[in-house]
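Exercise: predict the fold of this chain.
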Amino acid sequence: MGTEVHTIRGPRRDSFDVICAGEPRWRAAKNPRGPAGLALSAGLLNIARLLSTGQVHVGLATVFEDDHLARSSLAEIAALGMDVGGVKLVPRVDTQLIVADVSGGESFAFSETGVTQDLEIPAPWSSQVLLLSGLSAITSRLAAFCKAARKARRHGTAVVLDLVGSLRHWAGRDPRVISMVLREADVVRCSFLDLATIGMDSATVRLAMRSNATLVINDHGGTTAVGTFGEVRVKAPRESISAERLAERCTAAICAELARPHGVAETPSGRWHRILKSCASPPE
């Protein structure tokens, strides 16, 4: 296949409610009962799916290794009406890491990307909200995130940063390098586990953000938003839901809300209370 990079072709639109951009984090969870239990997911794609099924116009910009999984995933999300014109396919590098669940109930196969291409959002694209997800410790990729965020903000687009990262990518790295991206975000969503993985704490993240930006933190007890309006907290949903799924729903709910016109009669704290309440369900 050489080093050729393929851009996905298909129906085009240039204006979106939300552009989902960044690096997918693949995970395969295999039920020991047999191959029928195999399920694949990726944070960025799951968020995009939630938005698309909630009638939000989504454009996807990312880089995939060119394989059957990537192409089948693209076909699936394109069928939801998502524009995949910002997706690039690059030659596959076969590397995987297998992690066994301590309970012995599941095993996870993580695909470690060998992609060298950095994020690039098509020049004509615009949106109400830009979501950046899959933060990497690689300087060029952080710079690409900054470039995309700055361009978006110049055009009045709200920038949401989904602060997730892999321990394998961040071990031994200086977490302060993400300050350049934190300064560009209007909303940063993370969990305490995300912060521990990257090597930061909530106070350090908040200090690196602009004073008028909002920090949203998920934990086992619920979700908290901190901003110029003060602090708003909503308890965790009663339904059984994994931390990863809650984070994806929360990010999707934030993006869907920011893409809508803001009701002038609603206070900022009231708006964030409503957003956090909706984090337990896909956006409507």
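Check your answer against the key: The mean pLDDT is 80.
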